[in-house]
Amino acid sequence: MRSTTRRAIAIAAAGLIAVAGAGVLSACGSSGGGSESSSAAPAPTDEGAQVIGPVIVEPGQTSAEVAVGRVVTFNVDDVMAWMISSSDEAVLKVTAGKDDGSAQFLPGGEALAPGTAEVTLTNMDTSEEWVVTVSVTQ
Predict the structure, then answer these.
(1) Does residue 58 carry a pLDDT above 90?
(2) Burial class (CB in 10 A: 0-12, 13-18, 19+), 86
(3) How far apart are CA 73 and CA 110, in angstroms?
(4) Domain map of the chain by residue range?
(5) pTM of this prediction?
(6) How far apart (Å, rounded) are the C-alpha atoms in residues 72 and 43?
(7) Which of 81, 112, 115, 137 is the most exposed place for a label (fewest CB within 10 A)?
(8) What's the whole-number mean pLDDT along residues 2-28?
(9) Pick from 110, 73, 108, 112: which is nearest to 90 by CA?
């Protein structure tokens, strides 16, 4: 009887490991296509719709591609020090970084129409300039 109990426990443990492993593998699965490092994966919401995160442009990056309707943010060290402008607000409408006291928001923009806009970020403390060419696709 004791060996039957041990065997049942071993089988149950193996089953739990198999189920847990399958869950991990499905969570790590790929859609088969490559992805850009600056694109965030869709996340389900309560209503079943998907929310897509912003395209994040890192310091030193000089170009980015974003689809119409997406948001792009520029990763800066001090959100209040950087002024932002767009060469074509009809293509990419930009917003300055801000600090509302409870959170800080990076400077960024919203892709409104296909085209190209040159975004210029200027550090008001150091006069450093960072120019990024943003291509907006359909």
Answers:
(1) yes
(2) middle
(3) 9
(4) 43-137
(5) 0.64
(6) 17
(7) 137
(8) 42
(9) 112
